[in-house]
Every structure is written in structure tokens, then in C-alpha cells.
Sequence to fold (378 residues):
Amino acid sequence: MELLQQRILSDGKVLPGGILKVDGFLNHQIDPALLYEMAKELQRLYAGEQINKVLTIEASGIAIATMVGYVLGCPLVFAKKSKTKNISNNVYSVEVESFTHGNTNTVVVSREYIKPGDRVLIVDDFLATGAALVGLKALVEQAGATVVGAGIAIEKVFQGGGDLLRQQGLRIESLARIAAMSDDSLTFC
Amino acid sequence: MELLQQRILSDGKVLPGGILKVDGFLNHQIDPALLYEMAKELQRLYAGEQINKVLTIEASGIAIATMVGYVLGCPLVFAKKSKTKNISNNVYSVEVESFTHGNTNTVVVSREYIKPGDRVLIVDDFLATGAALVGLKALVEQAGATVVGAGIAIEKVFQGGGDLLRQQGLRIESLARIAAMSDDSLTFC
Fold:
């Protein structure tokens, strides 16, 4: 998506260790007009798929998921990082490793909000190793619902998570796909 | 706001200990069409105030803040709960007590994203003791920016935080104001 690529080039910063800093418009300060255009593009890509629920993970996925839910006309659910290891019977839960924070979180979603028959679009700001996406997909499958696909803002293709999941049959649409990053430049696919 | 009050009555649940559960439409599963109407109402209430930034706190404030930013045509910033006590020089920081979780968080916002001259609307899903709002207001003041006011989805008036802050001169617009809650009923102001 040209608009997002241009914004990454103008406002993004590449930091050592494979970190792309986009917190000026995507995940600390957020440009909702850009999110709206991104949501419209995901709507176009997933037209006809009868999505009735958007699923993301707190915290930085919530903004884009809100706009995707608004454009698709359906509710969104955000999976929560649990503070406790004592998981109640009222939730589906999964372990998710965080690339950015270098730790593992137990992530939960209430059984009330994903049901068999739901057609779920998973939305997130980043796709790198794919750990969050694998976890969210597992939550949907625990519920007996269908993962229609994933809508991602920025995919770091060189980290391999996206292609591995595509090989397993998951549809993933990423609005900007980064092939390579060096110290202060990046290349899109 | 009638629409929100009706939704609280139909889908909210009162739990022991002064907890109002609205996670079916506001802070776990979220209805973006409802958020849009809430954002339009805040736009009406704050018309002419030349707000150029929306500030909230992760995680459950992000959804409504996204929609308010979209409707007002300005960016939103969400303050982050810091994982570390070592706060860098690049952020403003403040301590915020959580009523829901019974703990204290260090909350930070990058100095890049709140500047002197900014006219900030603070947005959150709940106002109870006012601790989050006091913290967010302090962050804006550290930056030398102006707090235009606060836009809150649900105020638990009986917990007193809102009225205390109003007495100190802060403008607060709450879209649903709960006067009292008992075991399984609630009364709006």
C-alpha cells in the first residue's frame, strides 16, 4: 500500500537489532486518518469474506483493529495479556512470545466473545516471527471459529514468520512488506 | 448520552465491589459504531476548542481515543505502562494507581509527541477515583501543553474523582454518569 510505504519512509526510523520504529504514526502516536485508509484497503482485499469479528492483541493492535471493525461494521475483540497464571474457565488462553520485549505472556480472550460460526479477521500492527499471529489463530481455533485471514500493517518479511504461516495455508495480507533492513535504510518487497 | 446509557442497561453487568462490567461492548469486545457516536458527541461538546491531540492510556482507552482522533481529525497518543523503573530522558513519566488491578504503574509518554502549544483532550473509557486522569493531566503539564478537558465514556460519580477534579477547574464531559450501583442495579445522574 503506497500511502503506508511512503509514511514509513518519511517518518519511520530503523534502529539496531532489526527494530523499525514507527511510533510517530502507528503505535504510540497514531494517525487515525492513515488507519482509516489502511482499514479500507483491508476491506477491499477481504471483500466477500463475510467477516463478523476482528481479533487483535493489546496494546498496539487495538487502534488499527478499532478502525477495521468500524469500516467492516463488526465488533472487535482484543486478547489480553493476563497478569496471573491462574486462568479461569471463562477464557481461552495461549502462550505468546514477544520479540520486542523478550518475554512470554499468557494471552486470554473471554469465551463469550468468540463463538463457533464466527468468521474472524486477525489484525495487528506488526508481523515478524509470527508468534502473536500463531497465538491469536490458536485462540480462534479453541473457540471452534474460523480464521478468515490476517490483516497486518507492517510485515518484516526477512524474519520469516509470514511466509511460514502462508505455507501452512493461512491467508495474510500485509499492507507494507519489508524485504530487508540495514542500519539506516529499508527495502520493500 | 442516551445511546450509551441504554447499552449499559442492556449489556452491562454490575459485579460485587463496585465493578461495572462492560466488556461486551467497551473494553474487551468493542462496538466501533457505538464508539463513533460517542466520538461525535464529544466533538459536539468540545466544538471550537481547537483540540489538536488526543491522549489516553493503554490498553482499554485506545479504542475510544482512536475514534475520537478520527472524528476530530487529529492524532492520538497513548501513554504506556512502563515495564521498567529506569525511565529514559526521552519521556515524561508519572505514577498512576489502578483501581481495577490494585497496583501502581509508571506511565510514560515520549517527549516527541506532546509539545508546548498542543491543546490536548484526554480520553478514557472509565473515570472512578480519577487516578488515571490526574496522571495524564500531569504528563500534559510536564510538556507545557494545555489540557482542554477530558472526554470519558463512563463516570462512576459515586467514587468522587470526577467532582474533585471539576472543583479544581478541569472540564470533564462524561457520556454516562452513574450516581449509584447496588448488587444488580444502577442509577444514572
Summary: Residues 12 and 123 of chain A are 20 Å apart (CA to CA). The radius of gyration of chain A is 16 Å.
